[in-house]
Write a structure and sequence with these properties.
This protein has six helices and six strands. The protein is α/β, with parallel strands linked by helices. The chain has one domain (about 10-240): Alpha/Beta hydrolase fold, catalytic domain (Rossmann fold), CATH 3.40.50.1820. The radius of gyration is 19 Å and the shape is globular.
Length: about 260
């Protein structure tokens, strides 16, 4: 087996599990424990926390669903309007983001995770990667597309979770019919349905009528659902390279000392 190279500048990582609606912290314990074990095997120190940007399981469900529905329709240039993204950003800044950050959006928390990443990078925080697990499709900006991984269940719609079939990755905001602006409709078709798609997509062979990506027991073959999910997350994070934030670049004529 080929030895993995020593990772530089990745000794410490802050991992934030961004929950969706109707979620409770015990649901994330198997994922948190497996992440901790996998990262520590690679000689890394991790701090893992669960965020509830739309409120916990006792919050008003209608209010939560309304916020998520609004957030998944936002385009990258509109992330400032994201209720979940702004709350996740506030929580990350409060709890700590001195080390590289890995955001894992679970279910409807996928929208908040990506929007928070956009906002945090503008704050000068090193957002290394974002993973969306069983999440609605959210338009991803070009600066982040290669740093977003999308996990869904392999199979037809009736076998899978309904959430991944919500939202869209298309250039839909310019998809309207008008004799005054025929070029906009043409450009929408030219850019295609995946214009705002993440650069990494994994369709996993997940066991269960309702996909439980974090189950250490359910699974097809000898590999559990949780192990498949962890493997995808690790491979993406391991391949992600640190990049300077465009919002922290030294201005022309200023001193770099």
């Amino acid at each position: 087996m080929k030895a993995m190279p020593v990772m530089s500048n990745r000794k410490r990582v802050n991992i934030y599990l961004v929950a969706g609606i109707r979620a409770a912290e015990p649901e994330f314990r198997p994922l948190a424990e497996a992440l901790k074990s996998r990262f520590e095997q690679e000689q890394m120190t991790v701090t893992i926390r669960v965020l509830f940007p739309y409120g916990g399981g006792n919050e008003n469900l209608f209010k939560q669903a309304k916020a998520v529905r609004r957030d998944i329709r936002l385009y990258p240039e509109q992330v400032q309007q994201s209720a979940g993204g702004q709350e996740a950003r506030r929580l990350v800044r409060t709890l700590g983001a001195r080390d590289p950050v890995l955001l894992i959006g679970c279910g409807s928390g996928g929208a908040a995770a990506y929007h928070a990443a956009e906002l945090l990078e503008r704050d000068g925080i090193d957002v290394r990667f974002i993973v969306q697990v069983g999440s609605p499709k959210v338009p991803i900006g070009g600066r982040f597309q290669e740093r977003v991984g999308y996990i869904a269940k392999k199979g037809v719609w009736l076998e899978g979770d309904s959430l991944p079939w919500q939202g869209g990755w298309s250039h839909a905001k310019y998809r309207f019919s008008s004799h005054r602006y025929p070029g906009l409709l043409y450009n929408a078709r030219e850019k295609g349905r995946r214009f705002y798609a993440p650069g990494n997509v994994a369709m996993l062979d997940i066991e269960g009528q309702y996909p439980n990506f974090f189950s250490p027991k359910a699974g097809r073959g000898s590999v559990s659902n949780l192990a498949k999910t962890i493997n995808a997350i690790w491979e993406w994070f391991y391949s992600a390279e640190p990049r300077p934030s465009p919002f922290n670049e030294t201005k022309p004529g200023s001193s770099s000392t």
